[in-house]
């Protein structure tokens, strides 16, 4: 069973669920954490010398080795994969989001559920919109200047780029938010990926969204 080791956060140690780990590292500047298949590996990570530990999500910087990375990632400070989920029974939607550095390494992942939220009438799309917003907030707070949002619902990019007209209040709010982010100096690009086609990080974002929905059932 997967465990999570937090080396720098509000509390450090080993946690058995992502929810507990997230409480320690979410919006904690310079947080250092990682998941492991065994507790033994997690303890080794906690005891490792600081000089050998990987950098977590501070201000994203391109490394010299970025030129050998997948072209999808290397031209951006951060690349995000976002996806959404919806539970019709409870009228709850959620997003999953994974952030990758220029080497294609995951530096942050997140998922959150919303019950009767502002985008609820849009079902699964609601979560993906929230995921894109969360990604841009993360990018801005970590000093990124150029980012790529990978999504599987076409409207995420088309609304933001003015290719589709935003008719609903929710999509209008989303378009305005992206506009404000761009006006603040953030270069935002979008790329559609095929849903459920085996794209690793898109599948991970999908799973995070589903886990957030499941966690919300304990509310």
What descriptive keywords fit this protein?
three-stranded antiparallel β-sheet, globular, 2 domains, Ribonuclease HI, Chain A, Nucleotidyltransferase, domain 5, alpha/beta, five-stranded mixed β-sheet
Written overview of the protein:
The protein has helices spanning 18-25, 39-47, 71-74, 124-141, 155-160, 169-183, 200-216, and strands at 3-8, 13-15, 32-36, 78-87, 92-100, 106-115, 146-151, 187-192. It is an alpha/beta fold and 219 residues long. It has 2 domains: 3-46, Ribonuclease HI, Chain A, CATH 3.40.970.10; 78-217, 2-Layer Sandwich (Nucleotidyltransferase, domain 5). The strands form 2 sheets. It has a 5-stranded mixed beta sheet. Strand 5 and strand 6 (106-115) form a beta hairpin.
